[in-house]
Write a structure and sequence with these properties.
The complex is a heterodimer of chains A (about 120) and B (about 130).
Chain A (H helix, E strand, L loop, with lengths): L6 E2 L7 E11 L6 E4 L6 E12 L4 E7 L2 E9 L6 E11 L6 E5 L5 E11 L3
Antiparallel strand pairs in A: 1-7, 2-9, 3-8, 4-7, 4-9, 5-6, 5-8
Chain B lengths: L6 E2 L8 E9 L3 E4 L7 E11 L7 E7 L5 E7 L6 E11 L6 E7 L8 E10 L6
The chains are: A mainly beta (about 120), B mainly beta (about 130).
Chain lengths: ~120, ~130
């Protein structure tokens, strides 16, 4: 997987709604499943925080901007008691009118929690 | 790897360009290009993850592209948590014009391996410390 360049913004745009959060105690995200639906024309999702936790089996978790990888995969080891949290001081902006999806290896259970905002995409 | 002394800046300055990078690294993989000889790259956050369910321990060395100087070594144990997350309270400053590279290797054999990195930082035309 080549190095990619997710988009960070210094501040949230003036026009926004939220904040929102999604929590998914997912049994199987192979193939990817939707975490947050596309926000509609002229809008984009901006992520401010994410948490992953594995369960009983090793799992690598990836966030997708539609079908494009934007974060991860982050590996959760079954015997590592893994809990991963990251806050974006500078929000991570998804492509306009595109859903946030999650992909996990092995078709096993894990938990994902994401916080963010829905804002105008042109800012 | 010998003890190294990365340079830190006191804050994110005005006029800085934010960036993030995500992907896999193997042997001397470019994470961030410097863009030009007059710009300075700063790193504020590094996340390193095993690329898959690991059969062996992996370490990742971050280094400068111009001099090859090592900056930081991160060790990922196959029976550990699977990732390492470093947030720099004070941004790590690379030499002016230098980009950031990373190399992943297997701990036992020193063979080139693969790891996932996510790096945040900013680029500025004038070094913060000048």
């Amino acid at each position: 997987m080549a190095i990619t360049t997710p988009t960070l913004v210094a501040h949230l745009p003036r026009k926004h709604s939220g904040p929102w959060a999604v929590n998914n105690d997912e049994d199987d995200a192979t193939p990817a499943v939707e975490l947050k639906a596309a926000p509609g024309a002229g809008k984009a999702l901006y992520l401010t925080s994410v948490s992953f936790s594995g369960q009983t089996v090793d799992v690598a978790i990836t966030l997708l901007d539609g079908s494009k990888v934007i974060f991860g995969p982050i590996q959760m080891q079954a015997d590592g008691g893994s809990l991963f949290t990251k806050d974006w001081k500078h929000p991570l902006k998804l492509t306009a009118n595109t859903a946030l999806n999650v992909l996990a290896t092995n078709g096993v259970a894990f938990t994902v929690y994401v916080e963010g905002w829905t804002c105008e995409a042109s800012a | 790897m010998a003890i190294t002394i990365p340079t830190l800046a006191d804050r994110i300055p005005l006029g800085a360009t934010l960036w993030a990078k995500n992907g896999s690294v193997a042997h001397s993989t470019y994470v961030v290009l410097s863009e030009s000889s007059t710009k300075t790259v700063y790193v504020t956050e590094i996340i390193v993850s095993l690329a898959s369910t690991a059969l062996y321990d992996v370490y990742v060395i971050f280094h400068e592209d111009l001099s090859g100087t090592d900056l930081l070594l991160v060790d990922l144990q196959r029976n550990g948590t699977g990732f390492v997350h470093i947030q720099f309270v004070h941004p790590m400053e690379l030499p002016q014009g230098s980009g950031l590279m990373a190399t992943a290797r297997a701990r036992d054999s020193d063979d080139v391996a693969t790891a996932i990195v996510y790096v945040e930082g900013f680029t500025r035309s004038i070094p913060c410390l000048s």
